[in-house]
Amino acid sequence: MYEFFSYAYVSAISACVVLIIMLLFTDTVDKNHGRAKIYLFILLGMSILQGVAHILLASPFTTGNIELLHIYPMTSFGLKTMLAYFILLSVMNVLELKKKVIFKAYLLPLSLTLLYGVLYFICEDVSVRNLEGLATLNVMVNIRVLIFLTLMAAFVTSFVVIYKSYLNYLRSIDNFYADSENMKLRKIMYVGLFYFVVGILSLASNFTGSVAFISVFHGMNVVLYIAFVLLLINEQKIVEKVGSEMEIASPASNEECADDEENDSILKKIKEWAESEEKQFLKQGISVQEVAESVKVGKRVLSSFINRHYNMNFNTWINTLRMEEVCKYLHQDYSFTEIAEMTGFTDLSSMSKIFKKMKGMTLTDYRKQYVVTQ
User: Fold this and answer.
1) Cα separation of 28 and 41, whole Å?
2) Residue 21: what pLDDT?
3) What are the residue boundaries of the structural domains of the chain, listed by start?
4) Whole-angstrom Cα distance, residue 206 to residue 216?
5) Fold for domain 2-244?
6) Cα–Cα distance between 9 and 55 in angstroms, integer?
7) Crossing angle for the helix pair 95-120 and 71-91, nearest 10 degrees?
8) Which end of the chain is more exposed for a tag (fewer CB within 10 A), N or C?
């Protein structure tokens, strides 16, 4: 048993070393990408040190002698999850806004861990090998139970913060960019969701005492580290665009919003812009910044105006204008790919998806119903 888990730890350590080397040879595109890499370096470094300690010290895990709610794995889990959440926040460019919220969530379990460490040298600790042992009135055991409960609460609370931040991030990019599909970081967030599921199961494994059950999640953690590294490398151009171009900005405040007279003026300018022969809305990658400069209005004011007046975000508004052009071209002898290029979409897939969402039918069905029959 000892040799098997020793080999497993050697494999995990080797994987983490390779991932660190890969990160070292990856360019840092901006400060957000750099922060994500630093936290990932720390995360991988902790895993390497843990693996080495398990092998050299013949830990209960490698010997198959697992104690329930052991303080060491719970503390390690708390620190690692904080780092994983910081990586996600860095990629979304909201680390400075949400870092303190995450830290506060983990402050109580970490404080209890420090208290446990102090009392460990004063009070006699108890080895807990079954659920009955957790029912003891021993102070040390009770603190361990509290650490587990507060850690679970911090883990869930922090994920809710991440999830809400991501939803706000999606709303923000749709308010400021017309072609935002490749900026939505879906793959990275899928990894975050998988991490949340693995984390819940890992916490639950503290009550099993099963070496096989716990070892599965150690292996899954290594898989998650690999996913984090590969996504940071493969999607670094997207992360760079998010960090350098994207502005996670709240809508214009009431003081910034235009009055009725100014609203009429803004509406007139927007209509002139949309109806001009230049048809700038067909430009691929157009942003609210470019439109704001054309109509001489602040971008936050313009974004809020579009939301209020048209009851839609900037992304939907631009694509509504584009759809009118798409329908015109569908009545002519153009291929779908050519139409996508002419109307500013990044690719045919994006145009098809948006067309079906807005028109309730596919491009092919539209052409059959409204073009072929004419």
Assistant:
1) 13
2) 92
3) 2-244, 260-372
4) 13
5) Rhopdopsin 7-helix transmembrane proteins (1.20.1070)
6) 7
7) 170
8) C
